[in-house]
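fold-stage: in
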Amino acid sequence: MSRARDPIEELLIKRKVHIGSRSLTKDMEPFFFSQRAGFYLINVHKTKERLRVAARFLSHYEPSSVVVASTRLYGKKPVLKFCEVTGCVPLVERFTPGSFTNPQLPTYMEPEVAVITDPKSDHQILLEAAIARIPIVAFCNTDNTIEYIDLVIPANNRGREQLATLYWLLADMLLHERGELGPDETLPIPIEEFEYRPSEEV
């Protein structure tokens, strides 16, 4: 008898969240599953488990103390939608250096935790969060390094569908952890509403 597949893992595979890049860093080897057509594939079981750990961790913070960042175009809509439903604070515009470290700046803020979409494109935010000793949760592709990151969520962190799926799942899990969704409920917003559309202004 074949074992029934986990619906979250099925969703991650269907939405190609497991398809990484053409390179694999030493840091990301623990999350590697196999290689196909030149692409490194990510273990979706580990992605699912890390999403759950992240949701549990974030649930201990006031939403207004959690910043969620993306400087990539495809990540902005998912971040904005995630923050809309969870109450977290989005960072999707140009990040002013010193916003976490220089109290003299008008953009200065003191978050208690940061969620980073891509350590490469969000490097300035990642670096300042590290300097300010802010815990960092980050989506990491197979070619990312994980310096300064406290909690890695292995995933394709650059595709439009993939980012929408990741932020939808994290929102759903976080609301369950907070008790805002019942055990048999799911986030009543389709994944498509988290997905960037070229016709939309973000």
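fold-stage: in (second)
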Amino acid sequence: MVIKKSISEAIRGTIPDCSTATEYLEKVKNHFSGSTKAYASTLIKRLSTMRYTGGGIRNHILSMSTMVAKLKTMNMGLPDPYIVNLALKSLPNEFETFIVNYNSQLDEWDLEKAIAMCVQEEERLKTAHGDSLNFAKHSK
């Protein structure tokens, strides 16, 4: 009864009664399995089309990383090199030389190193432009 009271009435009515809490929770889980697939699809689309629009490179890449972590819980984990390339692809044109330099290296970065290097490049660009750097926004 406690579990039923904590679930929205609209949802509660669609789930049949069960004799145990475990059985009831399993029915709730099965009820929403289709939603998980739709959510994963939405996350993948957002991740692949995401563009940096300001607010700090670190926050931008960390928000991408959060989406990847959510996908991982749905058995849709992505390898670090792919995530790093998505993150670099999402950066504004001011990072073009930086990205070319990364692509010309033999070694690959993990996500933590990519964040550190991108933040360092962001700081270098801000210093070079007098701390008033406004990155050009990508067009969709």
